[in-house]
Each structure stands twice: as C-alpha cells, then as structure tokens.
Amino acid sequence: SAKRRALAARFAREAPDRTGAAPGNKRVDHTGGPAWRGWARAQGSELWQYATWCALADRHGACWQQWPAELRHPAGPAVADLALHDHAFARAVEFHAWLQWLAHRQLLATATAGVHLIADLAVGSSPDGADAWLHQDLLALDVRIGAPPDPFNAAGQDWGLPPFVPSRLRAARYQPLAAMVRAACAGMGGVRIDHVMGLFRQFWVPAGAAPADGAYVRMPADEMLAIVRLEATRAGAFVVGEDLGTVEPQVRTAMADSGMLGTKVWWFDPRPEQWPRDNLATVTTHDLPTVAGVWTGTDGSAEMLADLRTATADADDMTAAAVSLHAQVAAGGCLLTLAALDDLAGCVERPNLPGTVGGANWRRRMPAASEQILDGEPGAPIIAALRAAIRPD
User: What is the pLDDT of residues 70-96, one digit of tens each?
Assistant: First the structure.
C-alpha cells in the first residue's frame, strides 16, 4: 500500500491530467503529452484492456466474476461507458498503463547494462485474473489444468488454471497466444515455457472434481510451436522448454526440431556429464529442495542426501557442497546453466511445496538483499564456479 501511494503521487506529478475535466465530464485525452503516452498508444488495445481490468479490480475487487453483471465482459457497453463518462476511472486506467511503461523502461535499462533475463511463460493464468476476463469466450472456465496421479504426487494435481479450448483458439487465429509469447519475449534474452508439454496435451480436471477424474486433451501442437518459433525469432530470444515429468517422446523430438532447449535437473538425474548439450542445466527448481535443505536434513529424501554426499564427498560444509555441485552441473556440457537464487542465498526452504495451498508457498523472503547474496556465501563462490566453467564455444 505504501508503494502504491508513492507511485500514485509520482503519476500525478509526471503525468498530469491534461483535460482538467471534472469527474463524469468527459474522457481523458490520450493524444499527445509525455513520452509514456506515445509508448502506450503503440501497444494497441491489449494494454488498455489490461489497464481497464486493473482499474475495475481496484474498484470492485480482484475477482471479475463477482463484479456487477454489466462489467463482467470486456465488450460490454457499460465498460466502454466508464472510460467515456467517468473521469476518475479513465485516470485510473491511465495510471495502470503508465505503470507498465515504468516497468518497460526498467527492463530496457537492465538490457543496456548487459544483463540478459529469461522470462517465464506460465502454463495458464488465474480464473479470476485479467487474461480470463479478456479471453473468457475462448476458455473452458469450468475446467482446470492439472496433472494425473503419479509417483511424484499420488493424489494428482489441480493447478486451478482454466485452459484455452483448442477449436476456439484456432478460430481466433491464435491471437491471444501470439500476444502472450510476444510480450514474454520482449526485451528478454530468452523465455522459459513452463510445462512445455501443455503445447501438446493438457490434463483437464472438471472444476470441483478430483484430479483422478480428469482426462488428457490434445492441443494443436504444430501450430502453437510455429507461433513460439515466430515470436522468439522476431525478438531474437532463445526458448527453454520445461520438459520434466511424464513426457511423450514426440515432445522432445518436436522441441529439438524447433531449436528449443530442454531442461535437466540434478536432483532427478545426478549425471551431468551425460546430459545432452541442447539443455538448460540446473541443480534444482522452485518445486524441489535447495542444496542447504537437503544437506541439513530439513528437506528432501534420504536418497537425495545420499546422492549429494556422494557427489560432494570432499566437501566439509554446506557452502563447499553447493559450490562443488554447481561446478559439476556447469561442467556437464549443457548450453546454459542456471543457479537458483535460493541456493545462492543458502536457503533451507524451497519456494514452493507442490500439492499444498497457501502457507509460505511463493511468499518466502530472501535472507538478505540481492547484492549481499551475490557478494556473500555461498552466492559468490557459486557464481565464480559457474564463470570458471564458461567455454569459448
């Protein structure tokens, strides 16, 4: 709330109301004005639709399905009337568009500094969120994407994300997917596609049912992959597919044919010297234990601990073990190596525990500021080990 108040005050200073209109008098003029307005116009209708959802969520709550009935569809006349006749609402829309401009400028500054980020493209979005409101005619809102019961999670998984209906997405010429991939690639060195198998088939669970009651639905993989290739090529970005878990053989074949990197995780396969080159290599993921968690016995299994002790037999403490393990992963020959911030910080708790809801999932604070993590232990020696493994080719 403090950050929101500060940003609102900055918006009032840097993007003053150009109309001087009283509330309900006339629409804010979006033409001319500061640089951010030109950038916002160039984004087209998608930015303004998203900013409209944000302004409506501020006024009526985050769940659009509980808004007044006349506001529950983006094409409704009442939504257009708000922007035309409610001056305060129109300014709120501008505020949220301006926030995206600030984020865009920060992203450009990062790229200029020589840091190449990898965006993360999720397998879906919240049924209460902007995407579901904007694309509700293309989504199966009474279904959730998940995973069937397997050894990793015997109960199966319900991720709470409504899927696109393949026939409706195709009828819309895949425009929402193309816009999503284009936005994910913008200003990035690469993009990681979470659960890349979702481009091929998705496990659909009826809302309110158990994951065991779900079924697989085939997706138009060839067409969706073509869009990913096109948008990534336009942006000059590489693509990493998260191909962990139950993966059909044709998935990895199609990924290789598309020039898409796979993903290798040490906890799943502690033989980095055998990993194929066209992969991103990492010790762990956000759903798995950290090195410190396994080393201290606070997380992970006995098998994980045994593998860690064997692989880092010369290490006499957790920092030495973390450095040794990352050095082995980096030396394995994969094109990219990723070190999790949680491992750099020496955290014993993982960011997320699959199969659980709420609690500390996705809400854990780092023990120190980023610069302290990168300059301290085990962060600095891990980074040094990764740099030492960089090959000229």
Answer: 999 999 999 999 989 999 999 999 999
